[in-house]
Amino acid sequence: MAREWTEETARKLCLASGAYIVVCGLIAAGIVLDARGLWRAPALPQPISNVLLWVFLAVGILFGMDRGIPREGLWSHRLFWLRRGLLVAVLLTLVAVVRTG
Predict the structure, then answer these.
(1) What confidence tens digit (pLDDT) does each residue in 19-36 have?
(2) What pTM value is reported for the model?
(3) CB count, 10 Å around CB of 12?
(4) Angle between helix 46-64 and 7-35 (nearest 10)
(5) Which long-range contacts (CB under 8 A, 24 or more apart) does 64-70 make?
(6) Cβ-count burial of 1 within 10 angstroms (0-12 exposed, 13-18 middle, 19+ buried)?
(7) Please, where are the H alpha helices in 1-101?
């Protein structure tokens, strides 16, 4: 049973997308700073952190490319643009991972 789409749902997803973009920026910044030897963030053990990073990025790509969200209201339209921003943030994070890894 699917829930009905509301502007409140779109607002909550906008907040989640914004937080996702911030986390992508923090991950990319941490990777770049670590590669340049300026700052090393505390990390989980290597296999766990790699799996979590790639799952996090894959979920971001899937949500950023989802076509099933309507664009009827103000928050829905904002969510459309935040999802595009999320896709760009995830791709920039992937570039940071690949270029420094």
Answers:
(1) 999 999 999 999 999 999
(2) 0.88
(3) 13
(4) 140
(5) 64/90, 69/5, 69/10, 69/13, 70/5
(6) exposed
(7) 7-35, 46-64, 74-100
